[in-house]
Each structure stands twice: as C-alpha cells, then as structure tokens.
Amino acid sequence: MCRDGIRKAKMQLELNLARHAKNNKKNFYRYVSQKKKVKESVPTLMSKTGKLITTDKEKAEVLNNLFSSVLTCSLSSRTS
C-alpha cells in the first residue's frame, strides 16, 4: 500500500513538472539532472576465503560467480 502511494505521488510530481516545464524550466531540468546521477555503488564484499573485495572488477567476478552458481543449481535441479 505504501509503495503504491509513493508511485502515485511520483507520477503526479512528474506530470506536474511536465505540464509546467515550459513556464518553469529550472525545476524541470533540476529534476532531470537528479535522475541522471548514480546514487549508489556496490558495497565492499567478502569472498569465500574471507578477503574483502573493494575493486569493481573483483566485485563483478564475485557476484558473477555467485549468480552463476545459483542459476546453475536451479537449472540442474529442474532437469533431474
């Protein structure tokens, strides 16, 4: 219920910004520029050996291994 309320409020805000964009360009462009910003990054991860992973490349490898192991297990259990 809360999620629906937030979505409706966001849609109403965007609709109002779009309707009044011609008269108030400053607010419209401020909203658009906020949406383009990257807000979060992947936090520090821990490998199976207990090593802290901080670089983006290592994080990608750890997550890739995790997701591929989960997907492989679920596919193999369906086929048997």
Question: Keywords for this structure?
Answer:
80 residues, mainly alpha, two-stranded antiparallel sheet, 68% helix
Which structural class best describes the helix and strand composition? mainly alpha
Structural domain tally: 2
The count of strands amounts to 2
Helix fraction bin: 55-70%
Low-confidence stretches: none
Backbone shape? elongated
Mean pLDDT: 83
User: Largest sheet, if any?
Assistant: 2 strands, antiparallel
- Give the strand line-up of the largest sheet: 1-2
What is the distance, rounded to the nearest whole angstrom, between the alpha carbons of the first and last residues? 40 Å
**Total count of helical runs of at least 4 residues:** 3
> How many whole angstroms does the radius of gyration measure?
21 Å
- List the helices and strands in order: HHEEH
β-strand amount: 5-15%
How would you describe this structure to a colleague?
The two termini are 40 Å apart. The protein has three helices and two strands, in the order ααββα. Helices cover 68% and strands 5% of the residues. The chain has a two-stranded antiparallel ribbon. By secondary structure, it is mostly helical.
